[in-house]
């Protein structure tokens, strides 16, 4: 992934908010995602349709799976999901997790399709006090 990929991707509307706060991408945040673990970009006709990865919260031990999908990701969705599932399955990290909003069905479905299992309901989580689900893969 390149910093420009994260800066130029046209995020889906549901991904413009994270834990109840407007998700503003800056070059520093993009670089942090790149430096923090694995980060990839899926391109279609030279334009990013997805940026995704695993950011290590405790290097070599634990990470957070993340994804930014573009408006109109379309037919690339299946290949992107398979890539994410493969990378999560093959990762040597002991724990990989993701937190998703229960009100956005697509987020929950994608976490499952990426190989993560729901383990806990986080009630009234984040700045908007929305219910979220914690998903994980533990070795």
In short:
The protein has helices spanning 3-8, 27-35, 76-90, 105-113; strands at 17-18, 21-22, 37-44, 47-58, 62-69, 95-101, 117-125, 130-138.
List keywords for this structure.
139 residues, alpha+beta, 6-stranded mixed sheet, two-stranded antiparallel sheet, 28% helix, globular
Helix-strand blueprint:
Layout: H1 3-8, E1 17-18, E2 21-22, H2 27-35, E3 37-44, E4 47-58, E5 62-69, H3 76-90, E6 95-101, H4 105-113, E7 117-125, E8 130-138
Parallel strand pairs: 5-6
Antiparallel strand pairs: 1-2, 3-4, 4-5, 6-8, 7-8
Protein architecture, described:
- The protein is of the alpha+beta class and 139 residues long.
- Helices cover 28% and strands 41% of the residues.
- It contains 4 helices and 8 strands; from the N terminus they run H-E-E-H-E-E-E-H-E-H-E-E.
- It has a 6-stranded mixed β-sheet, sandwiched between helices.
- A hairpin with a 3-residue loop joins strand 4 and strand 5.
- The two termini are 27 Å apart.
